[in-house]
């Protein structure tokens, strides 16, 4: 049973009509905001880093090292978090714990050692293409930010066009067909959970020490909340969305609700929903 009603028509500002029903809705809205703000603050701390895949990019200080290691940590974020961290650590060692230098300067024959890497359905063939793409990209551009921000304007409500544009750019070169499943796109109604998580890492900057806030051309208000089964179930129980579907339409619907709680930083509630679902087993 939902604790709070689905409040798609609710607004942060009280309606002119002060009926008992409207006042009850406002009160429950404020209860939900207070609850989720507290949960977000509880998990959005440096202590969260060690047990989360975001610990991988936190091992680096150079912008490009953070971008590359963060991209792989997000793309490989399937299943048990300890396993994800271990596999990302293995991958970084294969890159001599210097991902930018490896990507930029390795020779094609050095790429062959990557073929032995495997995590779930992501294998060495996929990895070789990722590295080949990144080498070509970083040869001409200083930051991976522009692969996303180059497709978005300040007037865009969300990062949808950034995700669509990145997907198109990533697969412009000749590529293995099997690799397409590892970069999602809203064009196929994918929730784009991993890429939205990556964008959260790179864009949000609240000085709490978890997210990096390195990218300046995408606004935190444009971020879409990463949507997986745990977040979906918690959001459904709280009445934020009517059903826990892992697709783009539902991710947008959830984000619209979270934007009512904080118009400038809706993705901060990813900490709350993820913590409630994965750590506290709230569902």
From TrEMBL:
A Pfam family this chain is assigned to: DUF2400
InterPro entries (UniProt xref): CHP02757 (IPR014127), HhH_base_excis_C (IPR023170)
Gene3D superfamilies found in the cross-reference section: Helix-hairpin-Helix base-excision DNA repair enzymes (C-terminal) (1.10.1670.10)
Name of this protein: Uncharacterized protein (TIGR02757 family)
